[in-house]
Design brief:
The complex is a heterotrimer of chains A (about 290), B (about 250) and C (about 325).
Chain A lengths: L2 H33 L6 H18 L4 H24 L7 H23 L15 E3 L2 E3 L1 H23 L1 H11 L1 H6 L4 H27 L5 H15 L6 H20 L5 H15 L14
Chain B lengths: L1 E10 L2 E11 L4 E5 L6 H9 L6 E6 L2 E2 L5 H6 L2 E4 L11 H8 L8 H5 L3 H21 L14 H14 L4 E5 L7 H16 L3 E5 L3 H7 L2 E6 L2 E6 L1 H6 L1 H9 L2
Parallel strand pairs in B: 3-8, 3-9, 6-7, 7-8
Antiparallel strand pairs in B: 1-2, 1-4, 4-5, 9-10
Helix pairs in contact in B: 3-5, 3-6, 5-6
Chain C lengths: L1 H16 L3 H26 L8 H17 L4 H23 L4 H21 L1 H4 L5 E2 L5 E2 L2 E2 L3 H23 L2 H11 L1 H6 L4 H27 L1 E2 L6 H14 L4 H17 L7 H15 L3 H13 L11
Antiparallel strand pairs in C: 1-4, 2-3
Helix pairs in contact in C: 1-7, 2-7, 2-10, 2-11, 2-12, 3-4, 3-5, 3-10, 4-10, 11-12, 11-13
Chain lengths: ~290, ~250, ~325
């Protein structure tokens, strides 16, 4: 392969990883925008999607087609339980408490999975086979296409939901001003619940769709979660296109860095980007700076 | 003592203050009044250094402090109290006032952790001074109570004691009478005069007209971000523009 | 003061009661974890700044000492000084940009920092030995006395631990401690009172990192072998759990938290895989039901049973 073909390869695989980061990042952004909480357990939703699908296939002998939606539903239910038990009761929690609690939940979920499923990594079967396709000289697996398709669908669904449906607009209202939203009759608590449900569903989808490529284990949530967060930061915590672009940028940079510089430091790239952004431009690449009202 | 010159403040598209200028004479009590939204708290925030002005300058004893961070203004003898009282809730009443003495004391990390003699002597001095200011405001019996459990009126007094511990040249008070009943307000007036008698210059943002007219030597009226009038309480009471600004607002 | 003297007495006499060698080894770890927890508490509990990457400073101190002594045969005490100094400098420089962040963003940034350091430990194989670790680290010695067994290490470690606890207690009850707590309660009011919040936060961050680095050096010399696995995200969370369980803003609380969390895995030997679950549950339940930690929770529980006790403000 010549250098331009190699570059293209890196970019393609970077974009597909980036799409995953985008999906995870959207999960962070949606919860943050309606509650102001950064859900440290978001990565665990991703992990649960894949792990649950695997267990439905092996333990219940379900076909992939049934296991996937069931896993997404199950993860969503877990998201609901999480919100009900730990987030809803806390009214005046300090940011520190919220951070600690979501970390606690993430650890708990990880621990339970480790106990029940063990520590091995396992692969999910690819959705439509493993025969690579060749597009413009770069090799793409069918699974990559699934990822792009899903991300595209999610972007469209996102836009439709948040901008054209009543409950979506209500959620956006909550993100701008909770008190005002509740004053006009929006049930803020229900919006918070919805945001957790959507984020859990998105997270689990991301986990399921990437598992055939990268395998899954009880601890994949940490890294994926952090990188998804990074994508959301780049996008300025937007519940839409900003975070998606953020994810794509992150995935591509990571892939190029790993390919051209060093693969051992691949994970470090994402965090260096994260730190640089937080230091220099915490509002992300796309938002203008805001002034605070005292 | 304090000069406000041409202060303009814009937040994005909103102009909160426009070319506000007036002076505060040393040793007097100055009141800033105006209808809601006039920009009084914004002005206070700029003067106390919470954020810098978009344009204009603040001069303290002829020294331009417009871009000096808040903590440096404290070292120059400027202190402020807050409308919603910002106490250190987890600390005791006495400890709150002791923080007021932070700028007047010096022990650093090394000296404090090793409990060097200089530090010990300073601690004693800080404690004595803090007790003095608690007595000055009349809440010395509450010294060991957790600040967060104080009733609002006592909390106000604590915030004042803490501010005085800094031994300021100028004290900025943001709506000190807010949330106080008439007895507490009368006591507040006595306290403010007591502070003025120590030689401290006082600036009040206030809505309670009775209090303002009673204790202020001079008053500035703001409306919609601009200075409307300036003068003695009597002059302000008789000023047509002021009357219509308040009445016209409904 | 009395509390501290009692503690010192207990620490000095404890080995005479426990002759089992294994327990000595565990108590050495309790000492190291206490140092780490106290250092973290200054930042987390008193100044109110979240750090999810403190294992990084611990590791940097350990590797600094380890590499200087094992590979370059530098005198261990000098190596500890250099290592701690370097970590402190790094923390000071990183502190300024990182502590401008608040809440979640600070948590994520410190988390990211911790992971970057962990990756560096794993990747710089020539220097650190990579995932297989670094061995051949010499024991510390003082004149004729070499600290080469658990009994001697116990006294060495706890000597440092008690010293650090004492210095921290002094600091917390002083002008600086009050300024820190003020920043935690209301940063804007603290600044109005003249506290240079930005600088103080960085100073505490640096101090906390320094303590962790010293603990790391001591760890390296007592273990004589270190590997990146001990300095990852998991341990950073463990440290935060210790501080929270014991009680944010209580030095003795950090001791309690360290004791509990170091002994817990030993007690749960048979249930080894449950430890993560237990941490998770502890974090959640402590934050929701007992935010003051055990140090406040136990006395509060007792106070509920005893009639007529007035609340006093007390620290450390």
């Amino acid at each position: 392969m010549d250098i331009s073909q190699q570059l293209l390869q890196y970019i393609v695989s970077g974009l597909s990883t980036g799409a995953i980061y985008a999906l995870i990042g959207l999960g962070f952004a949606i919860i943050y925008n309606s509650t102001g909480i950064i859900n440290f357990a978001q990565g665990e939703f991703v992990m649960l999607g894949a792990v649950l699908t695997l267990s439905f296939i092996s333990a219940l002998q379900l076909p992939l087609l049934l296991a996937v939606p069931l896993a997404i539903a199950a993860t969503t239910v877990i998201g609901v339980i999480f919100e009900r038990l730990t987030i809803r009761p806390l009214k005046n929690a300090t940011p520190l408490s919220l951070v600690i609690i979501t970390i606690g939940v993430s650890i708990l979920l990880r621990g339970i999975v480790m106990l029940l499923w063990g520590k091995d990594t396992r692969a999910l079967p690819a959705f439509s086979g493993n025969d690579p396709l060749s597009i413009a000289g770069a090799t793409i697996l069918p699974q990559h296409l699934w990822i792009f398709a899903l991300t595209g669908l999610v972007i469209i669904a996102n836009k439709l939901y948040f901008y054209y449906s009543i409950s979506g607009k209500a959620m956006r209202a909550c993100s701008f001003n909770r008190r005002a939203a509740s004053l006009v009759g929006i049930d803020v608590k229900r919006m918070v619940l919805f945001s957790f449900m959507i984020s859990a569903a998105l997270g689990s989808m991301a986990g399921i769709i990437v598992a055939p490529l990268t395998m899954t284990a009880y601890d994949v949530g940490i890294m994926l979660g952090l990188k998804g967060f990074c994508a959301a930061i780049i996008g300025g915590m937007s519940s839409g296109l900003g975070t998606v672009i953020g994810g794509l940028i992150l995935g591509t940079l990571e892939s190029l860095g790993a390919g051209l510089i060093s693969s051992g430091y691949k994970d470090a790239i994402a965090f260096i980007i994260l730190l640089l952004l937080l230091f220099i431009r915490p509002q992300g690449l796309f938002k203008k700076g805001e002034t605070e009202r005292v | 003592m304090l000069e406000i010159r041409g202060i303009t403040q814009r937040f994005g598209g909103l102009t909160a203050l426009e070319d506000v200028s007036f002076a505060i004479e040393k040793g007097l009590i100055k009141g800033i009044i105006g209808p809601n939204g006039a920009g009084k708290t914004t002005l206070f925030n700029i003067v106390s250094g919470i954020y810098p002005p978009t344009a204009g300058s603040i001069l303290l004893e002829s020294r331009n402090i417009s871009h000096l961070p808040t903590e440096r203004r404290a070292a120059l003898g400027m202190v402020r109290t807050f409308q919603n009282i910002e106490l250190f809730g987890q600390m005791t009443v006495l400890e709150n006032v002791m923080v007021g003495l932070h700028v007047r004391s010096r022990s650093g990390i090394l000296s404090c952790s090793l409990k060097l003699p200089g530090h010990l002597a300073e601690e004693r001095w800080i404690r004595e001074k803090a007790m003095y200011w608690l007595e000055f405001t009349g809440i010395s019996e509450l010294a060991d109570i957790r600040a967060s459990s104080l009733p609002f009126g006592k909390g106000r007094l604590l915030e004042t004691a803490r501010a005085m511990a800094l031994e300021p040249g100028i004290l900025l008070m943001d709506e000190p009478a807010a949330g106080l009943n008439s007895r507490e307000t009368a006591e507040l007036a006595v306290l403010i005069r007591k502070i003025r008698d120590l030689g401290v210059t006082i600036v009040l943002v206030e809505h309670d007209m009775e209090l303002v007219m009673d204790i202020c030597d001079s008053i500035v009226v703001l409306n919609l971000g601009k200075t409307l009038a300036e003068g003695t309480p009597r002059e302000i009471q008789e000023n047509q523009k002021v009357i219509s600004a308040y009445l016209g607002e409904g | 003061m009395v509390k501290f003297l009692i503690l010192t007495a207990v620490v000095l006499l404890a080995p005479l009661l426990f002759t089992g060698g294994y327990l000595m080894n565990v108590l050495v770890f309790v000492g190291i974890n206490t140092m780490l927890a106290v250092g973290l508490n200054l930042l987390l509990g008193f100044a109110g700044q979240i750090s999810l990457g403190h294992a990084a400073f611990f590791g940097l101190g350990a590797y600094g000492s380890g590499i200087l002594t094992a590979t370059y045969a530098v005198n261990p005490w000098l190596a500890m000084l250099l290592s701690a100094g370097a970590v402190a400098l790094l923390a000071f420089l990183v502190g300024f940009p990182i502590l401008k962040l608040k809440g979640h963003y600070l948590a994520m940034a410190t988390l990211g920092l911790g992971i970057i350091v962990y990756i560096v430990f794993n990747e710089t194989v020539d220097l650190t030995g990579g995932p297989s670790g670094l061995s051949g680290i010499p024991n510390l010695s003082f004149w004729k006395l070499t600290f080469d067994n658990d009994f001697k290490n116990y006294y060495l470690i706890w000597g440092f631990t008690l010293l650090i606890m004492l210095l921290s207690i002094n600091l917390v009850n002083s002008r600086i401690g009050r300024a820190l707590r003020a920043i935690h309660d209301s940063e804007v009011a603290a600044r109005v009172m003249g506290v240079n919040a930005r600088l103080l936060k960085v100073q505490v961050f640096t101090l906390s990192a320094l303590i962790s680095a010293v603990a790391g050096s001591l760890y390296a010399h007592t273990m004589t072998f270190i590997s990146p696995a001990s300095f990852g995200f998991h341990f950073s969370i463990e440290l935060v759990t210790m501080v929270i369980i014991g009680g944010l803003g209580s030095i003795y609380g950090s001791l309690l938290g360290a004791v509990l969390l170091t002994l817990l895995p030993e007690l749960l030997r048979a249930f080894q895989d449950y430890d993560i679950i237990v941490y998770g549950l502890l974090l959640i339940s402590m934050t929701m039901f007992m935010p003051g930690g055990l140090v406040k929770g136990i006395p509060a529980g007792i106070a509920l049973l005893l009639p007529g006790r007035r609340r006093r403000g007390e620290h450390a």
